[in-house]
Amino acid sequence: MKTLIAVLLAAAAVASAASAQIPQMPKPVITDPGPEGVRVEQGGVFANYFAAPGEGRHPAILLLGGSEGGLGGGAVRQAKALKAHGFSVLQLAYFGAPGAPEALVEVPLETFSRGIAWLQAQPGVDGARIGLIGGSKGAEAALLVAAREPAIKAVAVGMPSSVLWPGISYTPQMKASWSAGGQPRPFLPYAFGSDYRNIYGAYANGLKALADHPDAVIPVETINGPVMLVCGKADTLWPSCPMAEQVVARLKGKGFKHPVQLMEYDDAGHAVFGPPVDKSNPAYPTLASLGGTADGNNAARQDDWPRTLAFMDAELKR
């Protein structure tokens, strides 16, 4: 969380030239899995793996962190909570790690395919019961990957995007976040209008031109299972609730056959999703850094995290 906040505050503080206002990011952090997990470095997969306790074949989750970088500490915390609930979890590094792009630019979607294949090959994993969880840019990736990979049977995302945005790099040039087959995927450009105040404005203004970039919309209707979306109405990073509503509208408009859940929280922002944080934690106040109050974000987590677990249970623990 601290790294993500540093990234976004730095982006919001960039000076006025539009070419310089594209989000910047520091060097990603690679968090050790600790004794509960193991580091994976094989077959083009760099990840932390947390095997579910007990014998037999367990359902599994592919977990994608956001733009906080590499194998972020917040996603490690999610992974440990999912493991304790009975899921085997692969927390996959898709940039800022050995064998991956240095920054979140033109990340090959094949990276995620390799992660899914690695999970399916584990003797303690039931390859027919794999779900996907992602937050922020990881939610953007999660919806796109789930739309491409029929092996994903359920997807839950926090602070999601309905479209593909530019990558987050060290240079002012806009490039794609994702690539497939060596070719960059189309994206919706940031827009810096006269009402630009912070990075939220670059996303909100960009959405106004969505009709001119239909190929940037994530084809969520091809997802092979139920979808859950969680957002905070006070999000100050990007308009996650309007974009979550766009996802729901597209699913309904395309005759999506699987269940869809949308949870929106008034006094929560970009920290709306994940396991609750104890008030004694020194990082507790940072829950309010990207919208809403710390108590509001934590109250949302106290509601949405158990519901996320129940959502995955219903589909993957049958």
How would you explain this protein's 3D organization?
- The chain contains seven helices and eleven strands.
- It has 318 residues and is an alpha/beta fold.
- The protein has a single domain, classed as Alpha/Beta hydrolase fold, catalytic domain (Rossmann fold, 3-Layer(aba) Sandwich), CATH 3.40.50.
- The strands form two sheets. The chain has an eight-stranded mixed β-sheet with strand order 1-2-4-3-6-7-10-11, with helices on both faces. The protein has a three-stranded mixed β-sheet with strand order 5-8-9.
- It is globular and about 60 Å long.
- The two termini are 33 Å apart.
Characteristics of this structure?
eight-stranded mixed sheet; 29% helix; globular; 11 strands; disordered N terminus; three-stranded mixed sheet; Rossmann fold; alpha/beta; 318 residues; 7 helices
